[in-house]
Design a protein that fits this description.
Chain lengths: 195, 195
DNA sequence: GTGATAGTGTACAGATCTGTCTATTTTTGG
DNA sequence: CCAAAAATAGACAGATCTGTACACTATCAC
């Protein structure tokens, strides 16, 4: 049976990204060193450097992977809902559950922006793209709820609400920030609907 | 004339805090080393370590100083306004101007929470206290605008709006996030007033 | 002036960091 | 089975980091 051998079983590269993602998410980018990553992953240092030219390149791949997982997880959580309003609410519920995870340490993109501001342009760009993608997704959820042409502006506002909730949840450790943000969003939405 | 000599002229301790504040704000806490701080301040390393037991202690003092300056600057900006609504709006205008400053690199407390999450409890606490103080200040500004008992809840929401604006401004480089947040806040306020 | 205090410069210890090099072993494709 | 590719362990270079030690000097109060 070559079947077991055939399945790449997760390449070393993917293992490294997965391990680094967890470590960077929990400990920050500067504070977690390459040695910690390879020791945790159980992979030789040279292997890391054959797959990634530098630590920053690894961080960039980690952020790309985080973006994929974030989208997949959020969309999988939203999709079962059919009602447009329920779908939008699910975004906030998803955030609430995220905030309640034991190792929650904020948004990896916000944190990267904080640590590498003006220093590593690529990471800054990845963070920006992540937020833009989220805003587009929000616009799609908002479209069936508001008048034509209002979705884009409201998506930017909802994006701001989510970023605010993340900040409050991180600094004050208050997972209810997600609910507060949804409460605000619903009222803003109601106002928009009434108009 | 001993007058010149009498004025401590800014103690070495204060010079160090001032220099470290600017450097940490722009470059982050891990990325900026002690050597950079003393070289920029033009002060011997031993002097730093006679005033502060460790780098983290220096960071803590920097955050305390940042909190003082933040409050003083914000209150000085708000105070000339008399109308309650204008006073509240001034908070957002102040943030907009902050976002537009050349070296804007986010909120030092949010950034500290991101870099030292779960690692240095004192810094986490300072960040939390800073946000709590801001929320109390917002509650004071909101009190004359809303029904008794609503100010506290709305202050938490406005605090979330400001955090959201900071996040958006940092990641997306969009200083207009402050205006967007105010636009949202005003609508939430209007809704509250109407009720 | 004089003694106490504060600051300076520099070297250094010890740790840690990124990234490289090399020799060896494991895995894999054909 | 065998050659090519991938991964390994570990030493190492060179930089940087925090924090300490020490001898020297300026400043200040009296």
């Amino acid at each position: 049976m070559t079947a077991l051998a055939r399945i790449p079983r997760a390449t070393k590269r993917d293992q490294l990204i997965d391990t680094a993602l967890r470590l960077f998410a929990a400990g920050g980018y500067h504070a977690v060193g390459i040695d910690t990553v390879i020791a945790t992953a159980g992979i030789a240092k040279q292997t890391l450097y054959t797959h990634f030219p530098s630590k920053n390149a690894l961080i960039a791949e980690v952020l790309r992977e985080r973006d994929r997982r974030f989208r997949a997880s959020l969309e999988a959580f939203v999709d079962p809902h059919e009602e447009p309003l329920a779908r939008l609410e699910a975004v906030f519920t998803w955030h609430r559950q995220w905030f309640e995870e034991p190792g929650f340490a904020g948004c990896m993109f916000n944190n990267a922006a904080a640590e590498f501001h003006g220093e590593v342009a690529e990471l800054q760009m990845l963070a920006r793209e992540h937020k833009q993608a989220l805003e587009r997704y929000l616009a799609g959820l908002l479209a069936p709820l508001v008048a034509q042409g209002n979705a884009a502006a409201l998506a930017a506002e909802f994006n701001l609400l989510l970023d605010g909730a993340i900040g409050v949840a991180l600094v004050s450790g208050d997972a209810k920030a997600a609910e507060r943000a949804w409460c605000m969003g619903r009222r803003l939405l109601g106002l928009k609907l009434a108009t």
